[in-house]
Design brief:
Largest sheet: none
Structural class: mainly alpha
Helix content: 10-25%
Radius of gyration: 17 Å
Distance between the termini: 27 Å
Strand content: under 5%
Number of domains: 1
Length: about 100
Amino acid sequence: QAIATRIEAFSEPNLDEHWIEPELDLDPRPDDFRPYPLSGLTRHAPPGTPMPEGTYPKVTGLEHDEMGHPSGSPEIHQKMTKKRRTKLTDLAADL
């Protein structure tokens, strides 16, 4: 529990050096498009973007698989948690 209340000072990073302005892309996605791949960058499709099979992006706040379908699977949860942890450790190393 000591870690939960720990406070540590650190130098404030210059986030402007690392910011990438995202572009709005509403083009239809290809059939093999995975909005949340387990490896590589997540390329969100904005709501209203035509998706394969005539679907549209789902914005639920729930855990989801690589295709963005909500899932309660423990296996999917572990994989997506690992992906998020890797993104944070990569960001920390970059800063």
